Amino acid sequence: MARLQTFPMGGLHPRNIGLDTMSLPIRNAFVPHFLYIPMLQNIGAPALPAVSVGDIVHKGDVVGISSGRMSVNVHTALPGKVIDIREHITPSVDRVQTVVIEVDGDFHLGKAIDVKRASWEGLSKEHILAIMQESGLVGMGGAAFPLHVKYNVPPGKRVDTLVINAVECEPFLSADNRIVIEHAEEIFIGISIAMRLLGVSHCVIGLEADMHQAIERMREVTLGKKGIEILVLEVKYPQGSEKQLLKAALGREVPSGGLPADVGALVSNVSSMLALKEAVVDAKPFYERVLTVTGDLVQKPGNYKVCIGTRISDLLDECGVRQAPGKIVIGGPMMGLAQYSDQVPITKGTSGVLVLSKKKAAIYRHTPCVRCGKCIAVCCMGLEPARLTTDIELGQDAHAKSEGLLDCIECGCCSYICPSGRHLAQGIKLGKLRHLARMKEERGG
Ligand code: SF4
Ligand code: SF4
Fold first, then answer.
1. Does residue 258 share a domain with residue 384?
2. Whose CA is closest to atom 1 on ligand 2?
3. Could you tell me if residue 357 is inside a domain?
4. What is the secondary structure of 242-304 as a DSSP string?
5. How far apart are the CA of 416 and the centre of ligand 2, in A?
6. Would residue 214 count as lying in a domain?
7. What separation in Å is there between the alpha carbon of 390 and the centre of ligand 2?
8. pLDDT tens digit string along 212-254?
9. 417 in any annotated domain
């Protein structure tokens, strides 16, 4: 059998614990009593609250209005009464203005959006971009970049291929796999809209070899469709990363500090294509998403469709978490963010929730580097993680930068493989944050 395509340098094959949820159909999570809807859930600027305390809102109503080009609207998934607007934590930011809704009332969609568009083919590019921003669309692969900005390719850049990322971004997660199995037709419509927007006639849909049912479904719905290619890739982490996927699928290498558009491509997550179809064709705003809940403390692991703004504590009640967790991670085990509170809400960028027992999450002690070179072997960006981390620990940030600090994609492979348990990816991430803070200071805040 011919070897499957993949990216050439580094990477690893962590035990695929995601398999335990791959076969479980998407379930609707229950309706929480309260929603905590942050005004900032995307890269860029926050939305501004469009409601006041005491307002009655309907399902799908705008509760936050975009504040500029790098901002999108925010909606409520459920009806109810606005009981507070205050600062609250999110999975990635400490304090964000948040609209708190006490859920109550009629669960039908608000009047403004209870309508299907007869045909999206007649819509102009500008109109579709406006729908994206109004519907609150952001990339769902993790970065939460506003889609209307991403799809408005800057002058001077030319995109010839759309690459759809159906590769699961982390080992524990399986939501994208289920979305393809259960929504393949709608995804195809989303892809058609995206191709129209970009003016491209070539699209590659990348899936990994263990997603058997998803591969079949995607093949079925794209059979005989011109310009659409289904590409089955080797199962390897971090293939869901934009740069590695482009290398694996098209053999194109994004230059250091560059974007996919620099090599004529645009990458979108498969869940984003479903959200795009729902926004443009069904006039449904982005107010809920599918995510994987798993971990050794979860009695009912699976893929859940969850209202954005649901607190983790409410979700975990439903998933049968009966003991105090040792660690809650938003995202996956390799790149996810550990949380200090279960009061954080699910946001547009939440792809998974991992709940570990105290035993599993036991803090390990790291020991000195034994110079085995394993961290270098697994780095898909060709970096020397041990050296970069030492530079950061010694405060030699300028040297770390010259050694490629900013090229690190924070995949976590180096930390995973290190026999000495060194906190390599964490150290490098700290160095990047320090660099960004310094840049901001130099620009005058
Ligand atoms: S976290 Fe950064 S340095 Fe470590 S393996 Fe990934 S890309 Fe390389
Ligand atoms: S993997 Fe760990 S022990 Fe091996 S060289 Fe890298 S930092 Fe040192």
1. no
2. 418
3. no
4. HHHHHHHHH---PPTT--GGGGTEEEEEHHHHHHHHHHHTS---S-EEEEEEESTT-SS-EEE
5. 10
6. yes
7. 11
8. 999 999 999 999 999 999 999 999 999 999 999 999 999 999 9
9. yes
